[in-house]
Amino acid sequence: MITINEHYEKLAKSYLFVDIARSVAKYQAEHPDRDVIKLGIGDVTRPLPPASIKALHAAADDMADPATFRGYGPEQGYDFLREAIAEHDFRSRGVQISADDIFVSDGSKCDTANFQELFSGNQRIAVPDPVYPVYVDTNVMAGRTGSFSDGRYADLVYMAGSGANGFVPPPPAEAVDLLYLCFPNNPTGATATREQLRAYVDYAREHKALILFDAAYEAYIRDPELPHSIYEIPGAEGCAVEFRSFSKTAGFTGLRCAYTVVPSTVTVWAGDGSPRVLRDLWNRRHSTKFNGASYPVQRAAAAIYSEEGRAQVRDLTDFYLANAAIILRGLERLGYTTYGGVNSPYVWVDAGRPSWDLFHLLLNEAGVVTTPGAGFGPAGEGFIRISAFNEREKVEAAMDRIVTAIGP
Ligand code: PLP
Known about the structure:
alpha/beta; Aspartate Aminotransferase, domain 2; seven-stranded mixed β-sheet; four-stranded antiparallel β-sheet; 17 strands; binds pyridoxal-5'-phosphate
């Protein structure tokens, strides 16, 4: 008899996007002429950078010619892309990452989800709260948590964000083995300073723990003082893995390409305390379970590192950041306390009431869809997330409607 992995039965049912969709459908049925503006989802709306489009066309031609056709590529990614990443995303910022430390994939969702399987079942895990749910659910599936009650899983350590800590919670008071961090953060838009990241790195070194650092929104950092990579913190090259994605950087959510950095200097331990090289473990896992991102997609990704590609990515991310500034201005006029929206495409709003109440108010009075913060974890209650990923006219119209509908 085939029996299931019973840890799946512990997964809390996420009704967040189902409930949002139901509310929107009801509103739309009652207001058939009203155009609902969606600032809830974290998906991009602008097309790919022209440099990537050109590279995709050229790669399609390569695939049409026996002389340039490519079949299976290296599982870790083509050298042309790994070298470009190491040079432009790291060495140009003074961080010594080698192309051999980079593992190209088809998305950071899978990478952040899969990485935990390298570690034993009894590891103690810390996650930010509010959180990108993938970090939590994959550890639940792997059996590293107890059951779910009152919005929390037993045996999981929640690093609670709040207005008081600016949604950059300090490292846990207790010892954990694996910490997930995400800066610029989804959903709060918070960014971490060098000193704040140093506290996590010091913690990891003290406890022989590993940091999984999700930098999916790195391309939105504009403040020259803010670190772009955890490896800008000395010592991180021994205790941290970094995830980057082309999704929000260059509009690749539908094309799919990302990468994970696992420096050869990161040590982990076997049960008997003997050291292991983490990169070897991930290389084994990656090459066993993944057969490489497609050649045209990797060409499209490499194109963003050309001179024109870099300028186009800057324009693309500037576009969404300008949307975020419009959202922030509107909310300021209404007197709301906000977080993020600068160096980040997400604005996190103190609702001053339960998350769902503000969600319903904005939907019913202004026809604007947001995301209730309560859906991202217990510390998200009382907040909503507004996404800057939309077309300019929609963002402007949404904020005008909100100010008119609920303003003074
Ligand atoms: N990490 C964070 C924090 C995200 O918000 C997202 C997507 O929304 C991802 C990872 C997934 O990115 P990808 O499209 O590369 O799978």
